[in-house]
Each structure stands twice: as structure tokens, then as C-alpha cells.
Amino acid sequence: MSLAWHFTTNGSVISSPSVVNGIAYVGSQDKSIYALGAWSGNLIWKFTTQDAQVSSPAIVNGKVYTGGDDGYVYCLDAYTGALNWKTFVNGDLPYTYGSFVLKSSPAVFDGKVFVGSLNNYMYALNAKSGDVVWKFKTDGPILSSPAVVEGGVYFTSEEPTSGVLYRLDSSSGSVIWKLPLPYEYQFTGGTEMIGSPSVANGMVFASSNLRTYYGLNATSGSIIWTFRDPAAMEFIVSSPIYVNGQLYVIDKFSMTSLNATNGNANWSFFTGDELYASPSFSDGKIYMMTSQRHIFVLDANNNGSKIASYTTPSGSWSSPTIANGRLYIGNHDWNVYCFANTITATVNSPAGSNLNSPSSTIVFALIVAIVALAVVTLFYFSRKLKKIKKPNGAI
């Protein structure tokens, strides 16, 4: 890979870019949403909101739908950045953790915008007007992004006694089924159900923070298989990626390929770096961004062997986006990067390991995890909780 361009914002870029019709859309913690030329990186337009933008935008029918820490869902013109509407969906929530916690990204289906809120509600908004079509109350905050497939809205919430995976009817918001998922409390004091479900081939793939992945029947919600890497550390924050019968999942340090039908592991690749962003797949390759400044490219057809890696100036929680032979990603150093994806062949490098094989890297991973947890804990408790006032006329 070679750097094609970079664009500097005024804040960390956690949002994952969306690339449509030659334009890259991305949010920044500087409170703004940017539209950049996908080939040049030139600024096309910028829209400033009231707080950090960490969710990833959805672009449908010439509109940009996104939500941020100010509690609003925005609908913008994709070509000019003009505001079409905004709807407040944070309800009576007295505060939020600000930019430290990743927020639900909107999904657009059948004329509606679906998005979860920290006020325990899943919202369905009219895509043209922003009016609330329906809202469904869970028993805990929703940080995951909904997957909307064939009339079903799938998402997880953090509830008092467990995480819960829901399927709602997209038209009415009524519950079709829900499934409690075992959890464990984290240092933040919550169950941290951040990973978003994926839906494909009649199955739902989801994760709990108990380092476990699930394959379920999408119609009934019954569990078909579970997978837990015994070497996995800490909770799961990424979303599984389904491609051609294979499921690509990550835990704290590893990428694993599973048979999507039965959950059996095919191979695993240990990075040695912390993984907080979902992977991406394109043309037989898997792309991962780590918090330790590395982009890994793996060969999905060769047991996860490493094709290449690239070191960026800073780590990232943004997922890579592959479009038109290029890789787009946000970074903690305030930049959006675009790399020319010129990888054409596998180089000699260690392949992914069998999941049942012992590894001397486990001890190293444990040390890294303990140090990282201590640093993040100190950072978290040093922050002041930021008050968010409910605007007049809020829903």
C-alpha cells in the first residue's frame, strides 16, 4: 500500500468512512461531518454539529444520515451538505460519556432510518421528514448499530441482568423475538454490548462481551452454535463479517475465520495489537486496523497469511473502507487517510495458526492487556461527565 492522500480535521476520527459516487463521508470529534473527494482528498463540504461525531454515516438516495454525541440524527444533502432535517433522539438521558463511547450508526431501509440511543430506545424515523415512525424501549442503553434485513431490525442492548439481542418488526417496532446473552461487568460499570449483529443466509451473527460469538436462526432466534476462543481477552467490540459462507471475527488481539454454518474455526491470526474496529473484506483480502498503528492485510484464501502491513502515525478505532481499489480510514491523529491498494500477491510470511495450537505469545498478550486496561481506566475516570440538556421540543 502507498499513501494517496490525507486530510486533517480538528479532532480524532473514530467514524468509519463511507464512500459513494466518488465522495468519502466521515465524522470527526471536532463536531463536524466532512465530504471529501475520494480521489483527491479535497474538501467538498463540511457540516458542523453541536458535539463529536463518532458514528458512521449512511448514504442513501443522495442523502447523508448520521448521528452524534449531541443526541441528534441528521439528514444532509450528499452533494452540498445542506441540512434537510434533524431529530433529537436522546430523550431524557441526563448525561453521556461523550466521545469515549462509540454510538449507534444509522441504518436506512424501506424509507425509514433506524438508530439506537443511550436512552434505551430504538428509533425508526421517516427518512424524508425525520418524524418518529415508532420507538421501542429496551431495559438498557443501545450502543450497537442495527442490522435491517428482510423486515427485521436486529440489535443488542445493555440490560441490567444480561445483554439482549432483539429482532423487531421494521414496520411496527413490535418484538418478534429476543434472546438474553450472558455478560460480565466491565471497568466502565456496564455490560458494554458494543458489537453489532450481522445477518446473512438466514442466520444472525452476534457477540456478547463474554468473549463469545453466536450463530442463530434469524426466523426463530434459536442458537445454532457458539464460539469462544479460549485465548481471547477482554470484551468484544467489533462486528462479525460474513463473506461466502465464512465469518470473520476478532477478539482483543486475533482475527479468526469461522465456518458460518457450524461455527468451527478454520484459522486464526494473532496480531499482538489491540483490535477495537471491525475488519473489512475485499477481493479475497481482509483488512484490519489496530490501536498500535498497524494496518494488517490478510489472505482469506490462504489460511489468513499476512500479505502486508502498514504503520500509520497513530492508532485507530475506525474500520477500514475499501472502495475503487483504495483503502479509507480515520485515525486518532485527526487525519483521514487514503491508501492506494496495490497489493496483488502474497508475500512469504507466517500463516494464521490453528486455534487449538499453544502459543508463546499469550503471555505477551496478557501483559499488554493489563497495561492497556490500566491506562484506559485512568483515562476514563479522569474525565468529567459531560452534561447534556434536553432541547425544547425533544422527543
In helices, the fraction of residues equals under 10%
Q: Quick one: CATH class?
A: Mainly Beta
The rough form would be described as globular
Output the strand order for the largest sheet.
1-33-32-31
Total strands: 34
Helical/strand content category = mainly beta
In percent, how much strand structure appears in the residues?
35-45%
Q: What is the fold named in CATH at topology level? A: Methylamine Dehydrogenase, Chain H
CATH superfamily label = YVTN repeat-like/Quinoprotein amine dehydrogenase
Distance between the termini: 47 Å
CATH architecture term = 7 Propeller
Question: What labels describe this entry?
Answer:
Methylamine Dehydrogenase, Chain H; mainly beta; 6% helix; single chain; 395 residues
Could you characterize what this model shows?
With 395 residues, the chain is mainly beta. Helices cover 6% and strands 43% of the residues. The protein has a single domain, classed as 7 Propeller (Methylamine Dehydrogenase, Chain H), CATH 2.130.10. The strands form 9 sheets. It has a 4-stranded antiparallel beta sheet with strand order 1-33-32-31, with no helix packed on it. Mean pLDDT is 81; it is low at 94-102 and 343-395.
